[in-house]
Amino acid sequence: MSTVNQSTWFEKGMSFAKYRASMSVNQEELGRVYEQLTFTEDDLAFWKELSGRNWKGVVLTADWCGDAALCVPVIQRIAEESNIELRFLIRDENLELMDQYLTNGTARAIPIFIFLDQDGNEACVWGPRSPEVQEMITAARATLPAADAPDFEEKQKQLYRTFKEKITTDPAIWRTVIESVKAKLTA
User: What pLDDT does 4 receive?
Assistant: First the structure.
């Protein structure tokens, strides 16, 4: 657990409503997940228990990101049930913060959710994907032609379009995010 106080970043962030209104790429996908997501009774009991922590969160994201179209609405709904206020920052406008949360020490992968305790200190970090979604994308990428193949770029774009469609329409995939976040918040 970091002792870095991230309250300044929280204050700089925008509300979910403002972030959603600013979207031009994945607004429909994000809205679909947000509106259709359901929680189990166990989930709701877990979120209720979390609500006493008085946490808040900073989210590094971007409208173009397919993973964000899945994870942002799921975790926003979790936050609403858990009395956690999230604030949203656009990754490329906040690289100083992003570079503190690189995936595998090198990648500016998003979304990243930085949960802060009541004093503004980092309590835990989640992102950019559930392990199951990571396995899915790794397997899908393995089917691509070599990076120097003439059709690589076209095939990669198609793969990401298909992948985004799948992860933003399949409630079983949404469940992997819920379970992964629960595990992180329990640890």
Answer: 61
What kind and span of H or E run contains 124? Answer: strand 122-126
> Could you count the other beta carbons within 10 Å of the beta carbon of residue 104?
6
pLDDT at 187: 77
Strands 56-61 and 122-126, bridge-based pairing: unpaired
Separation of alpha carbons 50 and 84, rounded Å: 9
Residue 165 DSSP symbol: H
Determine if the pTM surpasses 0.90. yes
Asked if omega into 73 is within 30° of 0 (cis), the reply is no
DSSP secondary structure code for residue 133 in this structure: H
Helix ranges (DSSP H) in 54-130:
66-82, 95-98
Strand partners, 107: 103
Phi, psi of 14 (to 5 degrees): -100, 160
